[in-house]
Amino acid sequence: MISGYDALCDECPLLCATQQFSPLSGTRSLEDQSHSDDDEPVEILPYLYLGNVHHSSCRQLLQRLGVTALLNVSTSCANHFPSLFQYLTIPVNDSASEDLATWFSTANDFIDSIKQNGGKVLVHCHAGRSRSATVCLAYLMRTCHLSLDAAYEHVRTRREVIDPNLNFMQQLQDYGHRIDRGEVPRTPTAVPLTPCASRSRSSPQTPCPLSLGDGSSDLPTLLLTTDSSDDLELPPYTSSRASAPAFVRSHPVRHALLFFLLQSGLHDSKISGLDPTSLA
């Protein structure tokens, strides 16, 4: 007879990893909790979901959502159910030097092929914030004929924690320029977007270190709080356009980092080839 704990491990193996889950206490580590606060992936399109490593490890959840394939954008996340789902792994790290743009075409083709067969894809990395979000943004730009700003806003209203690193944002902007020049063909007909109510914000008094990705950064760490907009003094945003892009307007931390990079000149040596002014 299989125990309840063994059944859980069969359904969600990642929750039962060593030192991550205690069958006696039923508690997870703080690091584990930080990635599983959002219980389910979010629907970006009717056949496209965005989530994290924990979502990718829960068989029952995937089957309930009708997911038939997973796009794993990481070098460390396991593909837990190869006999049940179709997998594509894009082995990139979340860093200021990684070239994720070279994989956009492969990722787009994979998602399209699953859609054409009537399936659904979960795109995930570790936290579901940077690498997997970047892949979803690139797909929307090409398939739904969206600008980077519009694609970012569409995804952010569904998963507010998205935060592609600055290197990936630059690659997405370059990708948008290539689409505009016809170097990357759009789909003949734009896939229509579905409306979605914004998810509630629930992270008061959370320190936000400014970094280039999920890992450590060579840049000094600046701590800001996400709910103290009245006390947070940011430099004024200036642009020739009518308003700031959504990824700056909705992300004051990114705004502060861009200003910091510009004022310090660190962008010349710390982020090769990245022009922070193009993101502002």
UniProtKB/TrEMBL annotation:
Domain Tyrosine specific protein phosphatases: start-end pairs: 101-159
SUPFAM superfamilies cross-referenced by the UniProt entry: (Phosphotyrosine protein) phosphatases II
Family annotation (InterPro entries): Dual-sp_phosphatase_cat-dom, MKP, Prot-tyrosine_phosphatase-like, Tyr_Pase_AS, Tyr_Pase_dom, TYR_PHOSPHATASE_DUAL_dom
Catalytic activity, reaction form: O-phospho-L-threonyl-[protein] + H2O = L-threonyl-[protein] + phosphate
Highest taxon of source: Eukaryota
Family as reported in the entry's similarity comment: Belongs to the protein-tyrosine phosphatase family. Non-receptor class dual specificity subfamily.
Name used for this protein in its record: Protein-serine/threonine phosphatase
Species whose genome carries this gene: Pomacea canaliculata
